Amino acid sequence: MEVNENIAIEHGLKKTEYKKICDLLKRIPNITELGIFSAMWNEHCSYKSSRLHLKNLPTKGKKVIQGPGENAGVIDIGDDDAIVFKIESHNHPSFIEPYQGAATGVGGIMRDVFTMGARPIANLNSIHFGSPQHKKTKNLLRGVVQGIGGYGNCIGVPTVGGQTCFDESYNGNILVNAMTLGLVKKNKIFYSKAAGINKPVIYVGSKTGRDGIHGASMASAVFDEKIEEKKPTVQVGDPFTEKLLLEACLELMAGDSIISIQDMGAAGLTSSSIEMASKGKLGIELNLNKVPCRESNMTPYEIMLSESQERMLIVLEKGKENQAKKIFDKWNLDFSVIGKTTNTKKIELFYDEKKIAEIPVDTLVENSPMYDRKWKKTKLPQKNKFNKENFKNLKISNILNKILSNPNICNKEWIWEQYDHTVMGDTIQKPGSDSGIVRIHGTNKAVAASVDSSAIYCFAHPLTGGKQVVCESWRNLISVGAEPIAITNCLNFGNPEKDENMGEFVECVKGLGEASEYLNFPVVSGNVSFYNETKDKGIKPTPTIGGVGLIKNYKDMITMGFKESGNIVLVIGKTEGSLDQSIFAREILNIKSGPPPEVNLFNEKNNGETVLNLIKKKLIKSAHDVSLGGIIVAIAKMCIKGKKGIEIKKTKQLINQFQYMFSEDQGRYILEIKKENYKNVKEILNKSSVHYDEIGTVLDNDIVFEDKTKLSVDDLELSNNIWLKKYMEK
Amino acid sequence: MNSSVIIFPGSNCDRDMDVALKKFGFKNQMIWHNDSELPKSDLVVLPGGFSYGDYLRCGSMASKSKIIDSVIKFAKSGGLLLGICNGFQILTETKLLPGALLRNKYSKFICKNVFVKINNSENKYFKNLKKNVLELHIAHNEGNFFCSNDQMREIEDNNQIAINYCDQKGQVEDNFNPNGAIKNIAGIFNKQKNILGMMPHPERMIDNYLSGEDGSFFFQNLINNLK
């Protein structure tokens, strides 16, 4: 097939990009070469719209072993141990084929982690769906949850945390972000950089089929009414093979034969081989007849662009082939020497003894397009004025029940009961907690992880929203007694070619960069998903943050359920009463304008570090951060979890009680302390200049307000539990 | 006491079982499915997971693996053979235990704590156990025990029901049946009571920082009974 501009455009390339390819090659590419360029230069692989802004993110820190640019980030957790982790999106495929899309998302992120030599020890996920009333939502949710479970459960890695949100902006584009943490010894981390000439290049894992061809290109385009036709571009997952591949790779990694290793993710054999060569400043030569294929007569084009799952590419020390092959034979996996490293700095492909492609590696990587796209700044919206009229006829008890059963607040047990969260025997805080926690097997250490997003805030004011979501992640880790170490981000946005969407991206990234810099909570890995748009309607900007922290002795971890009646309950952090963008304002008062709550990084850091200090001094019985729904929702959840009640004191606050109870001001925690420790705690809080209110005392049951209104915790629990189950099973 | 845990490709609770057995004093060995000889063992365990991907039918391919012949021989000569979750499915596929494990009633994977009542204590597994109700953990997609009426008659005549799903107080009722299993059956024995298959995972309940501690009672009691 003769390549021309139209064919290039069909491959998702722009006219200017096609011209650049011809200029770089000094000729017209053939169809295989064009396919390779289109795979490497699409948004998903090249980060062409985002690179310019991502490079400003803080990525370094004392505990960072590896920042962005590898298969996943790596942090030091003391002794010889390191944690490898990353979050990644699989949004577009999950909308088209929810089960397989979500399953392969989980499979892909686990491969990224074990490629680096780490055994996966925990999975998390953040999933966003359209309005519950939308006709597709229920089936998408069911399919995604089954897909996530189907893959993770089979591999035997516990899913310990997650987040599920509903918002009409995801009606046409759901989000499926999957995160994995793995454990590795510091001196046994594997990287993708190839080294040495004439080293064998090995293909292992599943056979290559026709599935997923141009998957990465699909993830780089907006949806239209013909999306159903894209079903064949969704990959099909085989968790059993991945389990074998995991065990075989870790067995091979125990030896010293691997020079570099890379999983075949987006853009398959193309991107894996090119990344290895590019990082090693080498060339690579592949004989495509040697690639194990599932179907006969696959063309070089198809072989290079297939996104069949559960495959790895390895550069091996010469002479170690037989030893390595034995391991893969044992696990019944394909093993084939398909090429070698060269000094040409080119990728050269052979098929039927003919050279069928030759491209300098730097044209694909360093010379890939980078755009400084136009973007529009979002002004901080005007605050709404709330007065007595707004709260007339409202009763806290009714509102609390209503908010607890809101789809975005309610108990998500229906979902996480379908995920194996206890396999591996080290899950010490399961889903539904502030963070999921797994022990480092055989030690006293544990790692905590949380995933968070705040699209409502990000939509209202991207800069503030970007900061807020990092702070929320940090608070969720501190609430369980973990020292926050680093984050991974999954940046889900609309069409970067539109000024507004690009502006949302730029400012969210700026905000999250500022917060992570200030909190010393660097970004070590991540992924960008643009073009979450259907028929011109984009999603709300949704940066998802996966945070990881360390607990030195797992026995010191904190849970959120109230423990003992008679204990004192404190609110840490000042309550200003800002209701704009709160769930109370949006859902109860139906006021959807206004700015998100302000983020004060100084207070955030000071409050968080002080809470952590109190936890270290063993002065805290339970803790929970204040987020959606404000103080009263946080307290209700602590009551439900601990099967306790609380007597709420008359507060000295001047603001209205609705503002006090439901505002979503940042930097706040609820803490439970023993009476005899109160003096000591007060001293520490005062010394650190941390604002606190004493809000009440733990009771055996019921929430009792100052006016003696009583709320049964059992009723609240019912409100909290019922919505999702009813929605899914009716 | 010597124990052996069989690893099939796709097993994923093998390590957890190894940890639990060792914690309570077993000298445990991991045995690869492609081996043909079992080492001398007082207990053989078929662990949970997705052997051979659970393709075809859960446990079906594992029941044809190389090691199975010696496992069957071991069990037929009276050796203690315990199958947990996927191990239970393998035991029904090898016909060492009657019945079959179907897809859960509500067609979804379930991972949660459940209570089980011990129905028969006259065996090495449950004899002397101080508790009559255990809180254990389930994590499965196909745990819905099913058998023919004839088989059920035989199971009941021989007192082969090991444990039933129940509530905290030991009441065996429909409400506490997580997967639709006949008669709330969570585990059964063979006639001789040396083979036990059960869906719950005691190995996940061996310290109070995990989901609970009742698994500890099970293993401690088992090794005491074997001494």
Given helix and strand content, the structural type of chain B is alpha/beta
What is the global morphology of chain A? globular
Helix content of chain A: 25-40%
Average pLDDT over all residues of chain B: 95
What fraction, in percent, of the residue positions of chain B are helical? 10-25%
Annotation field: number of helices of chain B: 5
Question: Can you write the helix and strand succession of chain B as a string?
Answer: EHEEHEHEEEEHEEEH
Strand order of the largest sheet of chain A: 8-10-7-11-9-12-13
Oligomer: heterodimer
Radius of gyration over C-alpha positions of chain B, nearest whole angstrom: 16 Å
**Structural class designation of chain A:** alpha+beta
How much of the sequence of chain B is in beta strands?
25-35%
Tell the overall outline of chain B.
Answer: globular
Q: What share of the residues of chain A does DSSP label as strand, in percent?
A: 15-25%
Mean pLDDT, all residues of chain A: 94
**Numbering strands along the chain, what is their spatial order in the largest sheet of chain B?**
2-1-3-4-11-10-9-6-7
What is the number of helices of chain A?
26
